[in-house]
Amino acid sequence: MAKELDIAGMLEGYDKDKITIATVCSHSSLQIFDGARKEGFRTLGISVGERMKIYDAFPKAKPDEFLKVDGYSEILERTEELREKNVIVIPHGSFVEYLGADEFRKLALPTFGNRRVLKWESDRNKEREWLTSAGISMPEIVPNPEDINRPVLVKYHGAKGGRGFFIAKDYSDFKLGIDHTKEYHIQEYVMGTRYYLHYFFSPIKTEGYRTKNGVLELLSIDRRDESNIDEMYKLGSQEELKKMRVFPSFVVTGNIPVVIRESLLPKVFDMGERAVNRAYELFGGLYGSFCLETIVTDQLEFKVFEISSRIVAGTNPFISGSPYSDLMQEDLSTGRRIAQEIRLAVETEQLGRIIS
Amino acid sequence: MAKELDIAGMLEGYDKDKITIATVCSHSSLQIFDGARKEGFRTLGISVGERMKIYDAFPKAKPDEFLKVDGYSEILERTEELREKNVIVIPHGSFVEYLGADEFRKLALPTFGNRRVLKWESDRNKEREWLTSAGISMPEIVPNPEDINRPVLVKYHGAKGGRGFFIAKDYSDFKLGIDHTKEYHIQEYVMGTRYYLHYFFSPIKTEGYRTKNGVLELLSIDRRDESNIDEMYKLGSQEELKKMRVFPSFVVTGNIPVVIRESLLPKVFDMGERAVNRAYELFGGLYGSFCLETIVTDQLEFKVFEISSRIVAGTNPFISGSPYSDLMQEDLSTGRRIAQEIRLAVETEQLGRIIS
Amino acid sequence: MAKELDIAGMLEGYDKDKITIATVCSHSSLQIFDGARKEGFRTLGISVGERMKIYDAFPKAKPDEFLKVDGYSEILERTEELREKNVIVIPHGSFVEYLGADEFRKLALPTFGNRRVLKWESDRNKEREWLTSAGISMPEIVPNPEDINRPVLVKYHGAKGGRGFFIAKDYSDFKLGIDHTKEYHIQEYVMGTRYYLHYFFSPIKTEGYRTKNGVLELLSIDRRDESNIDEMYKLGSQEELKKMRVFPSFVVTGNIPVVIRESLLPKVFDMGERAVNRAYELFGGLYGSFCLETIVTDQLEFKVFEISSRIVAGTNPFISGSPYSDLMQEDLSTGRRIAQEIRLAVETEQLGRIIS
User: Fold this and answer.
1) Range of the domain at A150
2) pLDDT, tens only, C54-83
3) DSSP string covering C27-54, please?
4) Closest CA of chain A from C254, distance in Å
5) Is residue C274 part of a domain?
6) For chain B, how far is it from start to end, CA to CA, in angstroms?
7) What pTM was computed for the model?
8) Does C206 fall in a domain?
9) Nearest to A316, CA basis, from A18, A58, A137
């Protein structure tokens, strides 16, 4: 951070009995508002443009009030107003992406989770350093495009929702597809089935799956729908489609619920624990929701291709619980779990440990 | 309608405290009976042939009584008997399809929803007129098969559950696949992911997402399973399979639950509102359940390829609620929502506005 | 069985008020423990190696106690200890597979379900004899690999979770793929969509879908995720991938929830009934959970490619109910249904009819 934010000072000034949970009206906001209300919090929706009407259709998820802004940057200017309402912000993917990581880091509001993770998460090299040094297996990197000798996935840095990713099988594919104006990154294309593992890490809870720095939970698992890759096979082979200049794209459009083979759960927890432990060593921790985006190979090995260090939209199918969270507590979404964590932190005067 | 039915007169003769909700035993009947019972209605299952036994396995969805008929046309002859039981019929896809749209229009029983929609829905040209004049984007039409210069889907009019649809990439594909004895329709094959949006429109409810003529709801979203297109890729490319004379088919066999990217919800509601508003202008309204069958492209644009103006089988995964209806009320299926609407209409003496 | 086990004698010695439900910690154990607890049973987890920690993350599914063993065979040596705890074992796929069918048959503990089914289930020829003589349609067998003239699936006997299966379109494919050191079996590759039907059969319940020997239920339906076949199409056609020496594999990694077209339910119950009726004729019955693994063709016909005669992992998405079990009773998983059956048998002194 350019200038250190005085989050502790802000929290000190807060009326802890009147905390308002706020987020931007998109991504997983229905779940966040619904969960916050279930735990007795006031809610505030930050609406960029006219997006408020849909909440009329979902009364349980309708925030108590809206703050309407014309653009994301306006949020930065209105933090005082929000602090007066004792706002704690729940960041989600769209929030961080559209505000921009740099601006988000400067946001003068208490936010759920550790903002220092952004530096490690938004840079694919640092993300890899974090996860591989934690002992987590990732798809291999191909540093030089001329060395592509098996299927690879070319990803652009900071690409929004998978836009622009492409598959290459050799250097000529690469040359055909690459946009040299963007920073890219070439990784081995791992064959298998995808599981997006939705974890929650609490540094303040004491019961459960205990690790060095707190308690690790698995709340749900989804698989992303991606347009057009998911259904393009219906039209013909990729080779044939290429001739018609139809290329695969990887834009997230939705999510389906899945469960994973039960015998893989020890590995699931082990990976989550490694990511968290290493985060505490490197940058003060990973707390709250996070997601490991994985592929399970036919050798039943995990390859983690990405980490998201906040609530992911893949939790949206589980607004009333999942086959995993149902084994912890009825009707427990990730949104509600976040609100519970804030509630527990307020009650035990540990807000500083889960807010940054 | 050849002869105008006196639905208002029928309803006048009804004992409103003893309404029976009836439907044909198939499609989404388990959900309809379960929902009706939850709202305190008597239920009657019209069984064509011996289909009653399965209800023994699902006690909550077992109708209070059965009317066994030998064929769909027998229903038309037994309407007096049904009216004596104060029956309101909930039409579903199989009901309308097997009875036939013409016969269904003549059915001398109060039915949920607007029967006048049938004329607009069963003719692909009028359906397109309705939706496009409402400002809803649909896949483009290719009027002349000789002009096929990109992938298209050839659909037969009134095809049952997708049977006989085929993909063509050029005129020679078309000639190979076409059955000239049937009326067909050629539309652009849109690449993307499919979302079947389950709406409910109430002209009598006052709270919620208000539109010109009432309140619009989104109850759930599914994706259809289609045999054999969904899994044929496992066997080889379409080009290769064609050589073995294996062709894709699109017969609906089931449904999976999905959620859509939250930032698309404003568009979802906008499309639903447009369809309903235009229906009121064109033919007196679209009320009760309906479904827009959509594709989301990698530009995050919707293309609507069909509308179903009644309960769809895609609501069946959500017999105890969905990630959307859970934000309105616990344990709310489309079947139950239908029963609630009838209950509200009875209580407020507005049955005439939701029955035709 | 080499030596007849005296299960009746064991049960006689049991304290029926202190029955403990036990299973091996894997596969569907979370569901089994959760379900047993909901019905008021004590629970015991048999942990092979260090797998116990994950249960800390799922408190509702954490067994009351663990029995830690170093390998599956150690279970056989510790049956006395388990009998002293009035243990009834719930076998699942991993339990039977890793212990070995022969050893499982000799296990000197009361186990849920009919162990005599194993002889019929683990031998693909006997399995086929059972199902086809019951009037259930299966994919056709190709006895001679030289006769392969359409797509076939080559399966190895006793293959674990689909490992090593392959598709062949002709004899040369077969020769390329086959491992002659294993027993194999060639069957027609049926095109369609897969539905794994989770049944429960009770010889002691009296209400419901009654058959000759008891009551048949349908609790849920899933589709298996298989690595790498499910997502390999994203990389290119099978023909192209073959050139890169990338071959499809069929290793189960997870499950997704599905529902089936309602009009197929009468066939679903008919097939289940046939399998059970024939099992009573051939080997004393099929009771408790079982699963027919089916493909639905575009003619809406079922082909059953396998039967599993115990709880399958495909029930795991439904730990709090399914669109089918919700129509019987709230919050009813297969694991809970098993516990209910044991409870009913205890109360009516019929344990001998559901235990072997």
Assistant:
1) 145-190+227-253
2) 999 999 999 999 999 999 889 999 999 999
3) TTHHHHHHHHHHTT-EEEEEEESS--GG
4) 4
5) no
6) 12
7) 0.96
8) no
9) A58
